[in-house]
Protein 1
Amino acid sequence: MIDLLVRGARLVGNADLVDIQIDGGRFLAITPSANAVAPTARQTIDAAGALISPPFVEPHVHLDATLTAGEPRWNESGTLWEGIACWSERKPSLTRDDVVSRAEEVLRWYAANGTLHVRSHVDITDPGLIALDALLEVRERVKDVIGLQLVAFPQEGICSFPGGEELLEEAARRGVDVIGAIPHFEDTREDGVRSVEIAIDIAQRYGLRIDAHCDEIDDEQSRFIEVLATQAHRTGLRDRVTASHTTAMGSYNQAYSYKLQRIVARSGINLVCNPIVNLHLQGRFDTYPKRRGLTQVKEMLDAGVNVAFGHDDIMDPWYPMGTANPVLVAYVGAHATQLTSPSEVAECFRMVTDRAADVLGLAEEYGVEVGRPASFVILPAVDGFDVIRRQVRPTHVIARGRLIATSPVATTTLRWPGRDAEDIDFVRQSDRSTR
Ligand code: FE2
């Protein structure tokens, strides 16, 4: 007898229905439903033709700051800079219990939404490293459900914050997975370049990945992406390096953009665009025309660069809203970056699933394949386009073979004049639109 059997599911990119056997927390077999001899299982889920997908992956969030919006005051200007000021006022009151309870609450939201891998930045420009120690504890506490990667994030700088370099290395010693940087925030351009070199040196010495907040500013002169990508190329770190935000790209001229696409593609680095939060934060100093301030997602994808979408902030000093919903991130991302043809919307689904998994370097830990950990979602949809268009919630979330979340399919009964009461079926409509 096996642990779990899912009958009649549709794999992403394949119309044929399959039965999926799960045992011992891993995928045991995937067989066509048409000729399957079903084994007995302790638990059976009838997928009824729904989509089965690897779980959503969050490549960029700040769990140490989450759920602190309004503490001690609201960010009234809506700028990144006032957000940093509010956060530096909140930091002195951080405690271990405070960080653990807020981070775990949002991780439960993530799990309920079908996100089972999360990369969180944690601010280490705090001599006490309180949030870091708390999140290292959270990483251990949630590991049976969510794979949590922690980035040592020097929010107030490596060179520009007293002891910044030492704190970054201490975070590496304490066990972070990834080294961060924030070159555009450093006091001078030279400090910014030096901060990237320091981050890369520490990452190499401790065998860690790199994920830098890079050029998150509407300044067309902010060009640390070329520094980070070139360093990734020359050191051979390549896809172990990620540049997050890269919003200055929204202001680069076409000649420089062309040069940059070549440098970034050659480097093999990943990019993470955070469309919801950067649509909110960027352009705040503009009158009209007002810039969007986003990564050149379409152009970088065309150049062969791996790009993922992240949420970034959830109810914190930088962004007052958010429900940890990756489908909403992809939906907003599609519009904000004008990736709206059917194949481009499907690509947006990949940017919150397998492209984001590549950012985290999950490799064999991710995917609906025999032998891999049985973490997945069942989505009442026909394909990735359909998931994004209708903002579909997973009906089932399974973490390492264990059913951890269920949501009924939402239906609306319409009483239209002259017609019998009927359930509105948006799925049938989407079947037409994607054929
Ligand atoms: Fe961020």
Protein 2
Amino acid sequence: MGVRFRGWGSAVPDRVVTNDELSLTLDTSDAWITERTGIRERRVGGSAKSLGVLAGQRALAASHVGVGDIDFLVVATTTPDRITPATAPLIAAEMGLTCPAMDLNAACSGFVYALRTAHGLLETGQRRILVIGSENLTRWVDWSDRNMAVLLGDGAGAVVLEYDATGTDLLSFALGADGTAADLLTCEHDGYFQMDGREVFRRAVRVVVQSAEQALADADVKADQISLVVPHQANIRIIQAATQRLGIEMERAVVVLDRYGNTSSSSIPLAMVDAIESGRVHTGDYALITGFGAGMTWASAVVRWS
Ligand code: COA
């Protein structure tokens, strides 16, 4: 059974909020944020629905398929516009899709969890699936809390996955979850994001490395064959530490967090689309996609681009 990436697209709000702008109201500085996280600015605005619609429409256009060609919509989001209904049916309605549509929440691992889910759906007879990661994280940010406010941003990314009997782009997955670490990163219904940053950092490097090694072994691909790492965009130091432990040069990692901050389920597709559009992806290349997030959850996949 094979799965191909047929097309992709992304969307971010127009409003740019720089570190200097945050420093006007918070006890922080561009130097601290840049040095500790790698983030220089983030985009703020929109909704999970509006950003998801734009990214989804762009992915359909790039795939040269119509709304009637999509069998299923999976939307990875940590920040649905409402508790119910899910965001996916709202996006589907706006796009003119009439297929089944559902949300999936695995926090910042959500996009890879959604790829895994779509892969399973394609295995059982669906033919084309639209997978969207869309987040409006800044709605749940306490702008007086320097711990969180400097980290998060809004955006969306989408791919169309298509069944192909002749070969596959998705070679392996390694997913996991550990709910005993749930309290490390939370957002209550009426609250804001809160996090034990140091502990999340420590565990993130560990689970990224472990799941990446598992996915590489399952795909029978060696670290030195990986041309591109598409990591979750939380902190440049996490990406540096993980690639170093995996024995992959940092230059192979895609980094967009300097422009977008941490956009949770959207960060991996935003990075993936950026890499494709800037010419960093070539036919036959192996890529490692890897993320981690609240839950804790983690998820890696090995891809061979066709
Ligand atoms: N500006 C200035 N100072 C800040 C600050 C900010 N925005 N946020 C925290 N500080 C201060 C702290 O209060 C602390 O001061 P102290 O030494 O007087 O106590 C100091 O900076 C160091 O804090 P610390 O938490 O040790 O910094 P850090 O190097 O661990 O960086 C994070 C903090 C949050 C950037 C980092 O831990 C991180 O990225 N963790 C992982 C987060 C993550 O990946 N989350 C997403 C999961 S999907």
